[in-house]
Automatic annotation (TrEMBL):
Family named by the database record: Belongs to the archaeosine tRNA-ribosyltransferase family.
Known role: Exchanges the guanine residue with 7-cyano-7-deazaguanine (preQ0) at position 15 in the dihydrouridine loop (D-loop) of archaeal tRNAs.
Entry GO terms, CC: cytoplasm
Record-listed Zn(2+) binding positions: C279, C281, C284
Organism: Halorubrum alkaliphilum
Region Disordered, residue ranges: 123-142
UniProt GO BP: tRNA wobble guanine modification
Reaction catalysis annotation: guanosine(15) in tRNA + 7-cyano-7-carbaguanine = 7-cyano-7-carbaguanosine(15) in tRNA + guanine
Cofactor notes: Binds 1 zinc ion per subunit.
SUPFAM superfamilies, per the entry: Pre-PUA domain, tRNA-guanine transglycosylase
Name of the molecule in the record: tRNA-guanine(15) transglycosylase
Domain annotation tRNA-guanine(15) transglycosylase-like: ranges: 13-340
Amino acid sequence: MRDHFEIRDHAAAGRIGRLEVPRAGVTVETPALLPVVNPNVLTIEPRRIREEFGAEMLITNSYIIRSTDRIRDRVLEEGLHEFLGFDGAIMTDSGSFQLAEYGDIDVTTAEILEFQRRIGSDVATPVDVPTPPDADRDRAERDLETTRTALADAEAADTGRMLVNAPVQGSTYPELREAAGRHAAGTDLDVFPVGAMVPLLNSYRYADVIEAVTAAKRGLDPDCPVHLFGAGHPMMLALAVAMGCDLFDSAAYALMARDGRYLTVSGTDHLAEMEYFPCSCPVCVDHTPAELREGDDDEAERLLAEHNLHVTFEEIRRIKGAIRSGTLLELVDRRARGHPAMLDGLRTLLDRTDRLEAADPVSKDAFFYTSHESARRPEVRRHHDRLARLETPPKLLVTESKPPSNHEYDAVWRVKPPFGPFPRALSETYPLTAETPDRTDAAAQTAAAEGVRRLAETSPDSAITLGHAGWVPEALDVVPDRVDVEDLRDLGR
């Protein structure tokens, strides 16, 4: 058990949690965004990131500090919090990113952890090896062995009250990610970043991100706080939370601003092409795109970075609200309409409905059917699994319409796409109170037919009749032959 991380609420595989950071003396509520602060270039002062944007935690690079003569001694003397002017929790990276970029760094795990301890880091990182996507398997296995050695060195180090990251690597090999997660969870380390994600995120390979994270989480324990390294675009944060990630670090707010790019929850716009700002953050209310284009370049970069940070923190708060209200998957569905790659990510997430169903609460405020992906949500699977618990009469009608007053059946149940059949007494229970469109699509009808099939399988002694309102042929093909089928549109003709 990891007593420094407490899960308070769930939706899908997402959760609201409390991460205790003992060296900082603070508790960070997750999901949490950690803005990346370059110790050499403070685009936005860390004090402002804390006071104006509400950041409880940030991340900076201890390797850069250690390698930069003009700031190293000052940070050692003042301490990291004083140097940055930040009184929240501070995580430090170890130089693993530089290792991935340049092939070698002149520091060991023991050395960099000791340096992180001396400068006052609250969450430290060993020197793991971020294996890039699509690397050959031999390399991935070799790199993973090196990372395991780094985790062993981190366990052996005197880290005091610092929390220590246990990165989970494995490239794009799910079985290696799972094994790495299991190994990391078996250590006495504290936070579990899924590493080498930046190349996938930058290439919009969200389906592959889902595969890597899902595999890692199969190996990790449920109470392991999971950090998705390099994830900071607001467009994909809801998806990342829904798959069970708790911490995110964003350099995107500053890097995008440097290139004149404006972040939104549905993608990235270019300042040079914008006529209006759609946002209501202080930057967008007080300025126009033309004013930023025509003003000082450094000022425009800073203001764009501020907007990018505002919209990203706003999305984190929106995600927390969606977890509380049980509408996280609806939010993910809306975000998935912003980019085809996001839709690939959502569909890959829903391929793992069994894992979502295990974590998803059995009751929420509402279920909204917003697209055919809604037919694959964990609530639908859970309803189908529970049909075996129901006692069925000898002659049963399941129908989308009201039954005739003089029917010959022992009982009449409702059938509602995408859930399928259920006794009318359950009509006011979640998720059968779902808001669904009057014009159901093929996916909802097929899911409902799957429910009819499951009921027929678990009730072999009942004669079942299905009354449907014009279901598509592919849905009717799912219904077993032993179920009598009536198209309600034909009645009375």
